[in-house]
Amino acid sequence: MFDLEEELKKLPAKPGVYIMHNKLDEIIYVGKAISLKNRVRQYFQSSRNLSTKIQQMVSHIDHFEYIIVDSEMEALVLECNLIKEHRPKYNTMLKDDKSYPYIKVTVNEAYPRVLFARQQKKDKAKYFGPYTSLGAVKDILDLLRRIYFIRTCNRNLPKDIGMERPCLYYHIKQCKAPCQGYISEEEYRKSIDEVIEFLNGNYALVTKDLQAKMKAASESLEFEEAAGYRDLLLSVEKLSQKQKASDVDGVDRDIIAFASTGDEAVAQVFFIRDGKMLGREHYHITGVANESRSSIMTNFVKQFYAGTPYIPRELLLSEPLEEEELISEWLSTKRGQKVRIHVPKKGDKERLVELAEKNASLVLQQDSEKIQREEAKTIGAVRHIADMLSLPGIYRMESFDISNTNGFESVGSMVVYENGKPKRNDYRKFKIKSVQGPDDYASMREVLTRRFSHGKREAEELAKKNIDISHGSFTRYPDLILMDGGRGQVNIALEVLEELKLAIPVCGMVKDDNHRTRGLYYNNVEIPIDTHSEAFRLITRIQDETHRFAIEYHRSLRSKAQVRSILDDIDGVGQTRRRALMKHFVSIEAIKEASIEELMKVPSMNKLSATKVYEFFHSSVENANVTT
């Protein structure tokens, strides 16, 4: 039993991090302190003037723990790491968890590749970035493929040269097929050197080359080819223009400002490298009500730079930091050089900060309008449905459907919506076990019985272990069950619930003769829906999603069964070889058309097994019975 008074007395007067837990042992707050004894005790002193949010947090504290460190700097680092890992409810939180993309050139390989990378590793490759936009990286990679014909495959070259056919990129003229030996290692390496120059920002070389090629193609009356070079030139020009938003000088700096309203804030960051604006990003922050502007900025800077891979030489901020000296020391340590933090009051730097703040205000305003529209489509639509059915309130809805083809591979689907939004982690698939043939009512009875019986058993097992039932995967029951159909399906659901002694409202989603949602069937009455309402649109989305989920599961099972029915009939072709054949040839039709020599190129296939596959598909007797 945690004795609060006794534990407060034991607190050491040393630097460290304290971690607050609620009754469910969830971490609800993480903080750091120069003296744990002084800082933690403040939360429980009635004379302290605590903010509303902190008072609420304290009311939920069941117990706390702490970690002692050697310095305030270590406490800051540990605090940032724990907040990022546990995302406590009462910390001011940076909602975005973005990782910044890199472009990776595998210069350690004989035939290097140019790849997208999420993080920089110590693997002897050359990295460029980090970039602020995933879209920009994809555009650059696409451009490099079209200009320099760099391979993207993961073949082991030169070892695998000539072992497989060239890929699609060769045929669309975006790769010179080093896998076939069509380009020498030396010539390929020259292209890689030019790629590295390009990624370093030297666009003059490629621009000059493309202009020469365009001119030569035009003089040879190859106008289509000339137009292709022209398009590449325009792409290079567009990319180079993005780098030309110049700063006051040539240093690396981030410019940060934010705008807030209520409990939400948006921070805007401009990224300037070598005096050029590389891009900008906005970040959502929650839990800022009653926080000072300095506190919001401090929390953002700590969380943001705990996760970003690059620390610039200077930060220009719209608000001063509460722990500026400590944070500057921390960032300087991460960078390996002095990091300057400054709140400009005049000149060009102040105007850049003001521009960032205006952008943050604009995003916040747009997001506010977007949230209102989104709430009308989700929470507002759910309230409308609850009012139509005279229910006190709806949070969770579960929808069920059955899919089969003449009773073959019958499956059931369960999709879950909470507050009008799909909760895909709670979706469930059911392969029908007890029903033979196309009996949708019996199949639905099995699905519902399995779903709610599982929930009851799981709840009982958790209760025996004194674990809150909310931690179970099936123990959270819906406030409303939606059936894809009318009276018949609803009655099946009500019978199952009665047998299991559960009281959950059941509603049918009724369709007209054209298979369009017409109304809701509830308590033996069909209730029409205004087809222009958000409630109608939500019901339609749920119905379509339930049907899609069931169809996709059924299709996957049917596809697997078809592949087995053909390939498993071949003597000497087991699961491993079947999988290898399908991976190599993609379709049954391609396997049928392959020669014995082509079949032998498939991993795990030898001459004997390749011959058996070939003879199976080319035997006049067998071939007549094989379908795809």
Total domain modules: 5
**Oligomeric category:** single chain
Q: Averaging pLDDT over every residue, what do you get?
A: 82
Radius of gyration: 32 Å
Number of strands: 20
Throw out a few tags for this protein:
628 residues; 8-stranded mixed beta sheet; disordered C terminus; single chain; GIY-YIG endonuclease; alpha+beta; 21 helices; 5 domains; 6-stranded mixed beta sheet; globular; Nucleotidyltransferase, domain 5
Characterise this structure.
This protein starts with a helix and ends in a 5-residue tail after the last helix. Helix 14 (440-464) packs parallel to helix 15 (487-499). Strands 13, 14, 15, 16, 17, 18, 19 and 20 form an eight-stranded mixed sheet that branches. A six-stranded mixed sheet has the order 4-10-9-8-11-12. It has 21 helices and 20 strands. A hairpin with a 2-residue loop joins strand 8 (253-261) and strand 9 (264-273). The longest helix is centred in the last third of the chain and has 34 residues, at 534-567. The protein has five domains: 4-91, GIY-YIG endonuclease; 102-241, no CATH class; 253-369, Nucleotidyltransferase, domain 5, CATH 3.30.420.10; 383-537, Nucleotidyltransferase, domain 5 (2-Layer Sandwich), CATH 3.30.420; 568-623, DNA polymerase, domain 1 (Orthogonal Bundle), CATH 1.10.150.20. 45% of the residues lie in helices and 18% in strands. It is globular, with a radius of gyration of 32 Å. With 628 residues, the protein is an alpha+beta fold.
